Amino acid sequence: MRKFFENVQKKTARHPLLSCFLTAILLNLFVELLSRRSFISLAVFVGTRPHIFLFNACIIFWSFSLLLLVRRKLFLSAVISVIWLILGIVNFVLLGCRVTPFNGADLRLTKDAMAVAGKYLSWWHLVLLIIAVAALLAALVILFRKLPRSEKKPSYIKSLIFVVFSFMALLGINSVGKSTGVLANQFGNLAQAYQDYGFSYCFANSLINTGISKPGDYSTEVVREIKEEEIVPEEHVSAPFVVENRPDVVNEQGVAVTEKTPNIIFLQLESFSDPLKYLHMECSEDPIPNFRKLMEQYSSGYLWVPSVGAGTANTEFEVITGMNLDFFGPGEYPYKTVLQKQVSESICFDLKEIGYHAQAIHNNSGTFYDRYTVFSQLGFDTFTSLEYMTGYDTTYMGWAKDEILTEQIAKVLNSTSGADVIYTISVQGHGSYPQEKVLDSPAVRVTGLPTEGETNAMEYYVEQIHEMDIFVGELISYLESRDEETILVMYGDHLPSLNLTEDKLENGDLFQTEYVIWDNMGLARTSRNVEAYQLGAYVMDKAGLKKGTMFRYHQAYLQKTSHTAEEEETYLNDMKILEYDILYGDQDVFEGDMPYEATNLHMGVQPVSINRVLLQNKGLYVTGWNYTKNSVIYVNGKAWETNCVSQNLLYAADVKLKEGDNEITVSQVSDDNIVLSVSEPYILKQEKKDGSEGS
């Protein structure tokens, strides 16, 4: 075997560049086949866009140029080939679950992906994956030992020059391609971009291209011109239905707000859609009668969202900030990039200026998408995640059911005396959707699908959104019972990952969900399709609120119901300038001084606290308030395995306290072992080991 590899090395050494290029061609064919999932589609791509195909091969070829720098050329060649094969296979697997291809942003979501892997992979899938990884590592170790080294020492300087030169050549080709229109400057539709420009190019682009590139015409003067000419004047409150004086509510500048402001609740419904608009199947009855009735009675329409089958946080980002994700890098999640360190204008910051309290609710882990830190950059005051909830049921796949959210919204509304803006994120409709039969008596039967597996998956999905629709009805009933003027905005964050295609949808658009704006104030009913980044501005306009740079910019554009192509182009170009200025530029729109600071985000609206501590039979009993299954007892900073007996009692067995162990705290800890909050400490004045109380 070793002699065989030595012969291979000798032959490749005669024509190293040609060997690498041919290998790159073969790898490119393989990853493109996996990306397109069709030999015919691959043939069409190679035949109609050969220059794009070769450019993708050149990107792979450049990775092989690193062989010039080492002696173990065959081994490094095997490693590079395996990496490209893995990228192609991962993309193939992901495309079976969602529409968005594998991209650089997914690498930043590794922690989040691990947290939900059990919802998509069965235990034997995970076992096979572990075996495959172990086998791959073992194979690489064997190859490292068996594959021969080159006897000739590399010419490091010449080789490095070639590597750098070839990389610069790729950048040059990329620049020329973009300037001539052969390659795209931005990917409005990431899935289509992978089909048009190839996997290797798009994936590499997503790794390098993050954030918003500086617009060519960006300047202080241009920003000021946009501010003066394209943004509606700021008004604190001007809703026609308000005449009540509220001297008890002041804005951050200490100015009394003299008009009444309604509660504004955003309810982002996970994967929520209308199955009656799926053309390839039929339902035995209407799965979402409450939502449909609301759409008939209140303002509603289609909502363009930035992703399909996944990407909840990006729909969220657009709605909260009023910013268009098209200007960011391909597939980028701002929650994982710019918002890790940078504060952003948001509907929270803007409404807090007129007395609102900004609250977030999510019946899933607070660490998902780093919301527990990112929400402070968006101006939220509190965030109630699943770690602070009790008494909820879960779906077959383990997601918390949405019915718990009515209680959580009530707690938030009752926690303040003024107006609230509440962003609620549901999770019940989340995938995956099992193809085995898990429902004995579904409320809605599905027919017309070609396989039993597809029928089972669709019935499971329909069952979840049917229950979500029941929750919507219950929430409306609760809000109607309150003596507070309220606007409730409900919409799906994206379509489900159920292999939907445009020809299967009544509206023919994979990037459209539906929204409805319920209110108890008699607002005029309108019907309009809007982008997710326009939704906040549209709602604020209905409430008579003219606040915030991005939101007032959209309000100016939405004053007209139709626009020319030139007006739309100007709108998008200037929107990019504003977004760049706020997040990456000089903040000229704020006169060079960012007016917002990250908030001191409180997890949960009801504090977790300790009332009393009892030591008995080596057990530690802690009584207090607002405990959940995620509550953990800490003694002098050390965690003890904790059992939540009730919302008022925690118990830790076999606790051995040492001298000086006198500080007891209760922390809310996520399933991925991140401490979200810590209670005020309870100090044991003395330790008693005879089974009596410590006080």
Automatic annotation (TrEMBL):
<dbReference type="InterPro" id="IPR050448">
    <property type="entry name" value="OpgB/LTA_synthase_biosynth"/>
</dbReference>
<feature type="transmembrane region" description="Helical">
    <location>
        <begin position="82"/>
        <end position="102"/>
    </location>
</feature>
<feature type="domain" description="Sulfatase N-terminal">
    <location>
        <begin position="262"/>
        <end position="525"/>
    </location>
</feature>
<keyword id="KW-0812">Transmembrane</keyword>
<dbReference type="GO" id="GO:0016787">
    <property type="term" value="F:hydrolase activity"/>
</dbReference>
<feature type="transmembrane region" description="Helical">
    <location>
        <begin position="122"/>
        <end position="144"/>
    </location>
</feature>
<dbReference type="GO" id="GO:0005886">
    <property type="term" value="C:plasma membrane"/>
</dbReference>
<dbReference type="InterPro" id="IPR000917">
    <property type="entry name" value="Sulfatase_N"/>
</dbReference>
<feature type="transmembrane region" description="Helical">
    <location>
        <begin position="51"/>
        <end position="70"/>
    </location>
</feature>
<dbReference type="Pfam" id="PF00884">
    <property type="entry name" value="Sulfatase"/>
</dbReference>
<protein>
    <submittedName>
        <fullName>Sulfatase-like hydrolase/transferase</fullName>
    </submittedName>
</protein>
<keyword id="KW-1003">Cell membrane</keyword>
<feature type="transmembrane region" description="Helical">
    <location>
        <begin position="156"/>
        <end position="177"/>
    </location>
</feature>
<feature type="transmembrane region" description="Helical">
    <location>
        <begin position="12"/>
        <end position="31"/>
    </location>
</feature>
<keyword id="KW-0472">Membrane</keyword>
<comment type="pathway">
    <text>Cell wall biogenesis; lipoteichoic acid biosynthesis.</text>
</comment>
<dbReference type="InterPro" id="IPR017850">
    <property type="entry name" value="Alkaline_phosphatase_core_sf"/>
</dbReference>
<keyword id="KW-0378">Hydrolase</keyword>
<keyword id="KW-1133">Transmembrane helix</keyword>
